[in-house]
Amino acid sequence: MNIHEYQAKELLKQYGVAVLEGHAAWTPEEAEAAARKLPGPIYVVKSQIHAGGRGAGRFADDPNGKGGVRLAKSPEEVRAAAEAMIGHVLVTKQTGPAGRKVRRVYVEAGCDIARELYLSLLVDRATARVTIIASTEGGMEIEEVAAHHPEKILRAAVDPATGISGFHCRKLAYGLGLQGKQISAFSKFVTGMYKAFTSLDCAIVEVNPLVVTGAGEVVALDAKVSFDDNALFRHPELEKLHDEAEEDPKELEAAKNSLSYVALDGTIGCMVNGAGLAMATMDIIKLYGAEPANFLDVGGGATKERVTAAFKIILSDPNVEGILVNIFGGIMRCDVIAEGVVAAAREVSLNVPLVVRLEGTNVQLGKEILARSGLPIIAADNLADAAEKVVKAVKEAA
After folding, report:
1. Partner of 137 at 20 to 30 A CA spacing, among 125, 153, 311, 315?
2. Which residues are annotated as a binding site for ATP?
3. Residues 206, 321, 339, 388: which is the catalytic one?
């Protein structure tokens, strides 16, 4: 689960992480009022969407104008900036061409920036430890730094048995070239981030840029926090931070039905049981010359109702021109899948080619259910046969 920048900063502040003073606003009037609470004379107005690259982004109705992060020198300018953002669609490298509608802004105090650094915490699967990543290249995407300047990335893995210590912080501080009181400020900052990461079951905590001010303070200029969905049951207080407006409606509906669904840009809808099989299905669709429209794993214990819901979600995507159902029945029985497919196809008036490949538990019964349905379902013998048939059917229907 992702949250907005202003929410992330409010959480991090509770753990001793230094952030600038700021206030969220849903209207231009609220933005102006927020600015009047800040010392000035410089203010920063930031669009709040679940995507990075806001400063370099452009608004769909003003592609040649300013981005989603703007400086202002008075409360009146803050109001004008908010007016140009709220209700408009911001397009960044991470949103794709569709962009995201800005529904709120964050008005923050200006900052005397001396240096920009990068800092993040995540779980490194190779070491099975929380790892702190830092770099002198603040403001840049860490993927670009890794690709072009890998020597500028510093790492410190934290043993879960002992937790974070002053050693980790000093090692990174020296590597970043910090001096004097900057080192102690940085150590306090990193320790607070680690406590927040472990206490809140985060998937990632990223501060980019982390700035050193002219006075030697270390402050988060931006903040990104993402939580491990599997641990949210331990944190009911975090649920109120979830902004459903930032989520794909199809993904929200899938979550309500305990389905693993991710929308993609292709035209072949996929319904598969098992994440590995789903990945293989998407790969073979690409091999045969098409693109998958989604990742959808119905899981090993799906019911007829969940399968029907999955089918409806796939068909709710206007880009879907064909559907491939690929089921290997182990715990999941093929007849249950077949009943769900038939029920959903009848309920939504199926109007695109449907190819079904079944194998495993009760496969013959599943095939009989599909054959007796009277629906134009194309049967496939194996995965390659299924991919070839769905791609061919879509091309013929076009």
Report:
1. 125
2. 46, 53-55, 108, 111, 116
3. 206
Annotated binding site: 46, 53-55, 108, 111, 116, 208, 222, 273, 330-332
Q: Is residue 94 part of a domain?
A: yes
Q: How far apart are CA 138 and CA 115, in angstroms?
A: 8
How many angstroms separate the CA atoms of 336 and 115, rounded?
A: 60
d(CA 327, CA 330) in angstroms, rounded, equals 9
Residue 302's pLDDT band, with cuts at 50, 70 and 90, is low
How many structural domains is the chain composed of?
3
Q: Residue 129: give the domain boundaries.
A: 113-238
Write out pLDDT tens, residues 236-253.
Answer: 999 889 887 888 788 888
Q: Given the structure tokens 């079944």, which residue do they identify?
A: 358
Would 2 be classed as within a structural domain?
Answer: no
Is 21 a catalytic site residue? no
pTM: 0.80
Has 206 been annotated as catalytic?
yes
